[in-house]
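Sat 14:20. Reprocessing the chain from the morning session after the first attempt stalled halfway. Input below, unchanged.
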Amino acid sequence: ILATPFLIALMAIFALGLGMIFSSLTTKYRDLQMLLSFGVSLYMYATPVIYPVSSLNGIFKTIAFYNPLTGIFECFKYAWLGVGDFSPTMLIISSVIIFIILAIGTVIFNKVEKGFMDTKKFENHFPVGYFPFFQVNIHSEYYNLKNNESFYITI
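Finished this time. Tokens:
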């Protein structure tokens, strides 16, 4: 029961890593959204939430063992319900895989971020002028200004 905050943090890190990967890829490949909704449904069946890991045999048990959510859900079942096939090794493997997914997601997001719509080169589409609500600072490292100049657009 004391491991519950750790398990919730692991699931949040897993969601963050996959979220960065898929958000980066769906900005470039729009059709990936359709595949993603199907993949999430399929992944729910691949994660042993209702059925126990002990009911799996052969290759399916090996696949479930390397599923990052299996160790977390088995630990939840063991802690809160007193049942389950929990082993610390499974939780350690889940943690390692989750942090690898987070690292991959961070690398992919940082590489693709430069091409996101909001971070493209400023093309002077908007007139410089005064509008009453907010001010936008555009820095030279993002918009290739010379001599480290920065300019302000007051909107």
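Confidence is low (pLDDT under 50) at residues 119-145, 151-155.
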